[in-house]
Amino acid sequence: MRTMLFATLTSIGFAAAALSPALGAPQMMGLVANNSAVPLQCQRGECFAELTAFCLQPLRSSPIRGTPYRLHDNDSLVAIATTKDGRTIELDPGRDLRFKAERSHVAVRVSLSAREMFRLGLEKVHITVARNATLVPVAVSGDRTPLQPDEIAATAGRLRVFGGEYVDREQQWMPVARMANRLINALPPGGRVSQQERRGLWAKTIRPDDVAATPAGTGQRLRVIYDDCRQAVATARRPSLRRCLESKHDSMVGALNNQYWHAIKLGS
Q1: Which site from 34, 76, 87, 235 is most exposed, i.e. has the minimal number of CB atoms within 10 Å?
Q2: pLDDT exceeds cutoff 60 at 234
């Protein structure tokens, strides 16, 4: 396993590392499976949600905000929509949804335009991410170091499975990050809500059964983060609850991502 992983990283990464990030395709990312469906919220002509992600290729550059991505496998994500007349339909994620990097390699925005929601007669859309989902950056004309088919296959295959052990299925901080992501998605894009709404967010979003289904200590760790963010907003140390929770989420996922990168470099 050690030799195979090191050989994989060497063959698909070192050449890209020597080139300017501006001239090469950014890194592929893993989408972290969610334990419950994430609803899209609609604001300013777009219906969207935020998904937890992590970098699979440390030797390629991190994406800038707005970088478009596509699913490597459409079956790795399910989008269930409720129509205005009460029917339930399944969308085609590769055709109907858009994926863009939101905050470097740790958060992705999945969206559907409000115009398209109206055209399809949709009332609500919920997103569920399956195990080992992978995102590939959309190819850009003139890219000097485009992703090659063998690189994509290796990254979405061996490296994605390996990353799952260090990030997706980590049992101390990933469960907290998943639940922090639920709190983030329950807040408006700017995150500015009243004090009463901040107090009620936990009860509205985090159910006792959800906490009971997580590893021991998850609820306590999340509560510390949540209370710290509420206090940070109340004392003007943070501009909004959403921004604070995003920062906490990104730190947790980033630390786990670093462990994955270190494990790849060691070939363990």
Answers
A1: 235
A2: yes
